[in-house]
Write a structure and sequence with these properties.
The chain is elongated and about 80 Å long. The protein is built from 11 helices and no strands.
């Protein structure tokens, strides 16, 4: 009897938290942010470990410029039980939010910890590669991008991301090979094509710069350093 009651109580709690979460989504779709947030808070009062609500509330806190609170919410996902439904997907969504909002330092920290707990999840390695590249940790970005490919060798996006990191490292010939490989895997991959075009522009510019430098040196004119531009990764 106790077992049946326990299962019934759990089902009732789950229904209640999912209802509040659905209400939050509905209110947000109507543009009623206060009601949406209130529903999220009710969902987390019912079940503080309900991962979708944690993700949504963390996003809200970042958007409201309450970074410390948002970070606590996102990082609490890392402490949830492994059997939590869609846990890795939700953690990756939190990381993607941080990337989309240029919170690369927090994203890098989140993905590093996630990869430590779940070392065989390719998305976490890709996230490390993206965030580390933005933060200037090129060697770490390259290593993580390669691990992502090792874990999912058929993913053209991962190959393209490695190519972009090689562009950041100014290793254009290697980057060109990666973009070509990504396009061979997925000819419709627009980001890989755009990055390949950009990579080739940089290769041409580098060749032209070297030619000008040789000419100026030969004529006795001091060589000036060119101003480099950096394009943000397409992710």
């Amino acid at each position: 009897m106790r077992s049946k009651r326990s299962r019934g109580s759990h089902a009732s709690t789950q229904f209640a938290v999912e209802a509040e979460y659905a209400e939050s989504i509905f209110r947000n779709a109507l543009g009623d942010a206060p009601a949406s947030i209130a529903a999220l808070k009710r969902a987390l009062t019912i079940n503080p470990e309900y991962a979708p609500a944690i993700l949504s509330m963390g996003s809200v806190e970042y958007q409201l410029r309450r970074r410390a609170s948002g970070k606590r919410m996102f990082f609490s996902l890392l402490s949830l039980p492994e059997e939590t439904e869609d846990l890795c997907k939700i953690i990756d969504e939190a990381g993607s939010f941080l990337i989309d909002t240029n919170e690369y330092a927090d994203g890098l920290e989140l993905y590093r910890l996630a990869a430590r707990r779940f070392p065989n999840i390719a998305e976490f390695q890709q996230g490390i590669g993206c965030c580390a590249g933005h933060e200037g940790y090129i060697d770490e970005a390259l290593a993580a991008s390669r691990r992502a490919i090792d874990l999912d060798a058929r993913n053209a996006a991962y190959v393209s991301d490695l190519g972009w990191t090689l562009v950041l490292a100014q290793r254009y010939l290697e980057a060109e090979v990666m973009f070509q490989r990504a396009l061979a895997m997925d000819p419709a991959h627009e980001r890989a094509q755009a990055n390949l075009d950009y990579c080739r522009e940089k290769m041409v510019a580098r060749t032209a710069s070297k030619s000008r430098s040789k000419g100026r040196t030969a004529s006795g004119v001091p060589v000036q350093k060119s101003v480099r531009t950096r394009r943000s990764p397409s992710r």
